[in-house]
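Appendix B, example 12.
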Amino acid sequence: GLLVHGSEAEVEASVLSRCASRGINVQGDVATGRGSLLLSASILSSNDGLGVFIGGSDVIIENSIVQDTHRIGDFGRGIHVQRDPTTSERATVKVRGSVIERSVDVGIAVVDSDLDLESSIVRDTASSSAGTVGDAVAAVASANVNASGVRLESSARAGATCFGATLSLATSALICNPIQLDKEATGPIAGTLLDLGGNSCGCGGTMGSCQALTSGLEPPAALPNCGAHTPVDDPCGALHAGKSAGRSRVNNCIFVQWSPAPAFAASIWTRSSCPWSGSSTRRSRASRWWSAG
């Protein structure tokens, strides 16, 4: 996958598929600051554990598809957004015009960070291997989630859940979820659900107003950052935007990594074969770059 560590990257019109750990991982660094990613017109498919992980960074995802994330342990989340445990920075994320489908555990999880979700679809989210969770969108622990013009459909557990967080919905549809909308307290924090109008809930063609339940649900957990930062031993990235203030651009790139494939993975960890910003501020670009096992 792609690891962006305290640096900037742009990915456009690309495919990242069958990555052994996390399709894209964006995280901050104490020395170089927040990570930054613009992902547009791209497909992340059949990656292991996570489609996109964002920790304490600034990310825009637009006109893209995150699908068929494979379960590793209990989860195979489409997009996971959280405060960076190393830098303590909140993440700020915008997702618009995108589809997140066939995830495991949560379609989009936001923990102690901020998400604007616009004109997007989150559907067919399965429960974990333990039979728990299965939410299209989950806002946890002082998260702020603003959703407008979204469709949350056919989740195993709930369309949208709020655990001591703030979740606002506008002109959105929650369709055929066992629990359409749920609000739970986290300790003394009750959480806030804001109905900004134009929302509907239902199934089988019968739609009506949305009513929030309190069902004693458990929230999804936060996740760790990638731990290593060199292309020799980092399990979270093959295209590596670097631990620097550099900027990388990946355009019209198709990256397919069959998993497990340790010998093949080692062969793609080279400067000559990967878009790489190194320690400089130059912009690198990969055009029609292929890897296949």
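DSSP finds one helix and 30 strands in the chain. Confidence is low (pLDDT under 50) at residues 228-235, 237-245, 257-293.
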